[in-house]
Design brief:
Layout: E1 5-11, E2 14-20, E3 24-28, H1 35-50, H2 53-58, H3 63-66, E4 80-85, E5 89-96, E6 110-120, E7 123-131, E8 134-138, E9 144-146, H4 168-178, E10 181-183, E11 198-199, H5 213-223, H6 226-236, E12 241-247, E13 250-256, E14 264-265, H7 271-283, E15 291-295, H8 306-316, E16 321-326, H9 329-339, E17 342-349, E18 352-355
Parallel strand pairs: 3-16, 3-17, 10-15, 15-16
Antiparallel strand pairs: 1-2, 1-4, 4-5, 5-6, 6-7, 7-8, 8-9, 11-13, 12-13, 13-14, 17-18
Pfam families: AAA_21
Protein name: AAA family ATPase
InterPro entries: ATPase_AAA_core, P-loop_NTPase, RecF-like
């Protein structure tokens, strides 16, 4: 189910933002304009379905730290709201601070409201609705059913469905959100697992931090687009080649480069080279996700790599929807050229993240 529209309210620098998503959407802007906040807001929907919403927000300092800190209407509650419209379903999640007495978990989110709509033509029907600790949903026969147990306040109702066969629409929505993939930071320090041989298993989806890079590359070479993988390496690093090896179940890789008499081990490669290989593994996955989000993939990359990266992202968009944030206008231009991307420029106005006037494309 493609993502048709995204809306965010009250999250970090985003006071209120709403825009449609294309098969390839590129959010572009300078450092500090709020690109990563838009990316993270999308990721919150994934962690909510996963059952790790509270942990995800804790890593950002807890719910009070991520709420919009600018002015709000007098008496208006401090809320974080994220919503998406898919093909025929829409979902909105709204969180606030834990009500008193807070106890030891005062930094947890308190899910105030959740709503799931089914779109039929121009009409929409509420198929599930949550208000604080209670919720109802339409079951498989269309009957309004109240959840029997009190819900955990810090997690989405999607993560607390105990009878998915009774609530097929909620189950389908949760399954779709769980299939989304996010890549923001690939760890490349000297102790990073991706620089060392690792016990490997078939890995059709690269881990979010790239720790299983060798296994992911080996999987592409074995059951995926092996020609595309090696051609992409040659395109990005002319005259170079990727060598994969497996010894007693431990996977590793190295690069042969022109002018050198021996290949370079992963431990010797530059941060930029390793990050580009991680992007290759993510974009050439033998099991592509329906929605792939990349946050500033150009980090540590030489400008000469942005054109081949744009072609790779364009190719990946033929297998699933892609969302990219970047401050590199060269990458945005490449994606416009190769993928017909919708480019949405962001800027700050009074501390709030906003779209540049006239930048929102018309919806189908």
């Amino acid at each position: 189910m493609p993502v048709r529209e995204l809306w965010i309210e009250g999250y970090r620098s985003v006071q209120s933002l709403r825009f449609p998503l294309a098969p390839v959407t590129v959010v572009v802007g300078p450092n500090g304009c709020g690109k990563t906040n838009v990316y993270r807001a999308l990721q919150l929907l994934h962690t909510g379905a996963e059952g790790t919403l509270a942990r995800s927000l804790a890593e950002e300092g807890g719910l009070p730290s991520v709420l919009w800190a600018g002015p709000r209407k007098k008496g208006a509650p401090a809320r974080l709201t994220v919503g998406v419209r898919l093909e025929d379903l829409a979902y909105e999640l709204s969180c606030g601070v834990v009500p008193p007495p807070e106890g030891p978990f005062s930094l947890d989110p308190d899910v105030k409201e959740e709503t799931v709509w089914l779109h039929e033509g121009k009409r929409r029907h509420v198929v599930a609705e949550r208000r604080s600790r209670s919720a109802f949903a339409r079951d498989a026969e269309g009957h309004r059913t109240t959840f029997g147990a009190e819900l955990w306040g810090s997690e989405s109702v999607l993560a607390q469905i105990s009878e998915p066969h009774r609530f097929p629409l909620l189950s389908a929505l949760r399954g779709e959100l769980l299939r989304w993939r996010f890549y923001h930071h690939f760890r490349t320090d000297p102790a990073s697992p991706l620089r060392h041989a690792q016990v490997g298993v078939r890995t059709p989806a690269l881990a979010h931090d790239g720790r299983d890079l060798a296994a992911a590359l080996m999987t592409i070479d074995d059951i995926g687009d092996d020609r595309g993988l090696h051609a992409a390496v040659e395109s990005a690093f002319p005259g170079s080649s990727l060598e994969l090896s497996s010894e007693e179940g431990r996977f590793s890789f190295r690069m042969r480069m022109p002018g050198l008499q021996r290949p370079l081990e992963a431990s010797e490669l530059s941060d930029g080279t390793l990050r580009y290989l991680c992007l290759l593994a993510a974009l050439l996955s033998p099991r592509p996700p329906p929605f792939l989000a990349l946050n500033e993939p150009e980090s540590s990359l030489h400008p000469s790599l942005l054109e081949p990266l744009g072609r790779l992202i364009a190719a990946a968009s033929r297998r699933g929807q892609v969302f990219v944030t970047t401050h590199a206008h060269e990458l945005a231009t490449a994606l416009e050229e190769h993928a017909g991307a919708a480019v949405l420029p962001l800027h700050k106005d009074g501390g709030a993240t906003e779209l540049m006037q006239g930048s929102i494309p018309a919806q189908d």
